[in-house]
Design brief:
The protein is 57% helix and 11% strand. The protein is of the alpha+beta class. The chain has one domain. The strands form two sheets. The protein has a four-stranded mixed β-sheet, covered by helices on one side. It has a two-stranded antiparallel sheet with strand order 2-3. It is elongated and about 85 Å long. The chain starts with 10 loop residues before the first strand and ends with a helix. The relative contact order is 0.15.
């Protein structure tokens, strides 16, 4: 398979404090005084930028997988287990669940109500799942619409808007948290799916 390269924009910034600036400037050729703020060796940080973008892409794809799990739970709860072709189920899934008008945030709320009504998770685990889904949705939106920046210390930051301007340091602790969140979220959704399936099978018998 061919690997493609598309044009992308990367923002680099220099962080400094006024107290650290030199007291005397440099006179340039236009007789203007300028103060050097430092420099960034872009080549030293490009590798981490590539990793950040690749990890962000994985968050987008993994969130799509989470969304499909939510859709299955919603569809099974309404129509029961998929045993044979059902035109109404197919219409519901294709024209509503997969429609762009039905956002992931709404599907998350639907599953929350399904879990509460069916008691498919205990209180603490249910609350934990709600928080993890909220974090996943926040990260998905941040990488989809935010801006990656690198400062002169080699620190990569994701700037995004979510009820105000936010900044997330993309350090190893953050990436570890992302992995744990997705793994734990998938495990909770598997529990819901399993409990719902058992309930539906029992009702069929």
């Amino acid at each position: 398979m061919k690997e493609i390269n598309l044009p992308i924009t990367t923002t680099y910034s220099i962080e400094c404090q006024v107290k650290d600036l030199p007291s005397e400037g440099v006179l340039n050729q236009s007789s203007r005084t300028t103060i050097p703020l430092g420099s960034i060796n872009i080549a030293d940080h490009e590798g981490d930028g590539d990793i950040a973008r690749a990890n962000g892409g994985k968050i987008l794809y993994a969130t799509t997988s989470i969304e499909k799990r939510l859709e299955k739970i919603i569809s099974d709860y309404i129509f029961g287990l998929y045993l044979s072709e059902n035109k109404r189920r197919a219409f519901f899934e294709n024209e509503l669940l997969k429609a762009s008008i039905l956002q992931l945030s709404f599907k998350k709320q639907l599953v929350k109500k399904i879990v509460q009504q069916g008691k498919y998770l205990k209180g603490k685990e249910r609350e934990s799942l709600e928080k993890k889904l909220a974090d996943i949705l926040k990260w998905r939106n941040a990488f989809a619409h935010g801006t990656l920046k690198c400062d002169n210390h080699g620190k990569w930051i994701l700037k995004y808007y979510s009820n105000g301007n936010k900044a997330q340091n993309l350090d190893d602790a953050f990436w570890d948290r992302v992995v744990r969140t997705f793994e734990n979220c998938n495990e909770s959704l598997r529990k819901i799916d399993g409990a719902l399936s058992k309930e539906l099978i029992f009702s069929i018998k």
